[in-house]
Amino acid sequence: MNRKVLVTGGAGYIGSHTTVELINAGYEVIIVDNFSNSDPSSLEGVERITGVKPTFIEVDCCDKEALRKVFEAHDFMSVIHFAAYKAVGESVEKPLMYYRNNMLSLINVLDLMSEYNRPNIVFSSSATVYGDADVLPVTELTPRKPATSAYGNTKQMAEDILRDATAASATLHGIALRYFNPIGAHPSALIGELPRGVPNNLVPYITQTAAGVRECLSIFGDDYATPDGSCQRDFIDIVDLARAHVVAIGRMVEGRSKSQYEVFNVGTGRPVSVFELVNGFEKANNLKLNYKIAARRSGDVPAVWADTTLANEELGWKAERELNDTLRAAWMWEKHVRGIE
Ligand code: UD1
């Protein structure tokens, strides 16, 4: 059985945690990354955690000839394609940059997989494809809503490309994992999220506020039609999320896929509000956070969380980490980055 996996964007937040779990599960990982939104230090972190130095090649997946050399040199049968831009606001300002990068890199990967007969791909999709869903929790059969950002549109289009490419091929198998809100860090605090500039996402903003890098967290809206007025999300621990990729790869490598293209929600199945998360962070870490209520952020859906039945039953995967531990790990990582304590 071929246990080699190409991980594009493997130096990033989700990519580095997935690499650790793949190595722990006995896979050999080849990473390509162009460090456009990641840092070489994550590769050192992976090595310190696992004792294994993954093969690394600095490549931009939009550069097909550079990527071809990786396919020429390595006989992996599976690819996990993380490499993509992911900032919602930026994608609205620079849509062409998002379409060019996110679509071209996927098409290059799929082209080369076809040319070199590499059959398995896991794609990083997002709960953003559901938009403001009419019925909660969302299942994989919940209709997708028209995307409200170029970023969201690249995820929808990428899923469609994967569906069509697998349908047209006798051998290609694809699994799209729709991530809910990945948070936290490896419990070793050796790898974690490294946002550039002012964080867009909630947990990095919280940890940077706790560290004194940001003055005050703004809670975007307390007047939603939710139990406490703040938005509800499905916050999934990054290590649990990483494990879902290992299971998805195993399913394809061992020939257990039910069809050539499959989609799974990767969440906890439990809604947590922004207030609950902030209070949970304070409790888990025994500190007080400076926060204020601010206006709603445009584009935010009031609530979204996953029905995880399919992932639980079909993949045999389930989120396991306690939110407390996840929030502790997030803070440990921030302290590590800032050299606190
Ligand atoms: C966003 C993206 C999602 C992407 C995910 C991870 C959309 C609409 N959202 O999810 O696709 O996969 O990031 O990168 O496409 N909040 C605050 N204060 C802050 C920051 C956030 O109150 O400083 C609130 C937000 O209003 C929201 C919740 O926290 O209600 C979560 O926000 P965020 O972490 O940015 O994730 P999403 O917008 O859910």
Features:
341 residues; alpha/beta; seven-stranded parallel beta sheet; two-stranded parallel ribbon; globular; binds uridine-diphosphate-N-acetylglucosamine
Strand order in the sheet with the most strands: 3-2-1-4-5-6-11
Structural class: alpha/beta
Q: Outline, from the CA principal axes? A: globular
| SSE pattern, N- to C-terminal | EHEHEHEHHEHEEHEEEHEEHEHH
* Rg computed from alpha carbons, rounded to a whole number of angstroms: 19 Å
Ligand list: uridine-diphosphate-N-acetylglucosamine
Average per-residue pLDDT, rounded, comes to 98
Count of beta strands: 13
Oligomer: single chain
Strand content: 15-25%
| Main sheet specs | 7 strands, parallel
Total helical elements: 11
Distance between the termini: 46 Å
Which blocks of ≥5 consecutive residues have pLDDT under 50? Answer: none
Give the helix proportion (percent range): 40-55%
Question: Quick gist of this model?
Answer:
The chain has 341 residues and is α/β, with parallel strands linked by helices. The protein has 11 helices and 13 strands.
Topology at a glance:
Elements: E1 4-8, H1 13-24, E2 28-33, H2 41-50, E3 55-58, H3 64-73, E4 78-81, H4 88-93, H5 95-115, E5 120-126, H6 150-167, E6 173-179, E7 181-183, H7 202-210, E8 217-220, E9 232-233, E10 235-237, H8 238-253, E11 261-266, E12 272-273, H9 274-285, E13 291-294, H10 309-315, H11 323-338
Parallel strand pairs: 1-2, 1-4, 2-3, 4-5, 5-6, 6-11, 7-10, 8-13
Antiparallel strand pairs: 9-12
Helix pairs in contact: 1-2, 1-8, 3-5, 5-6, 7-11, 9-11
The chain binds uridine-diphosphate-N-acetylglucosamine (UD1).
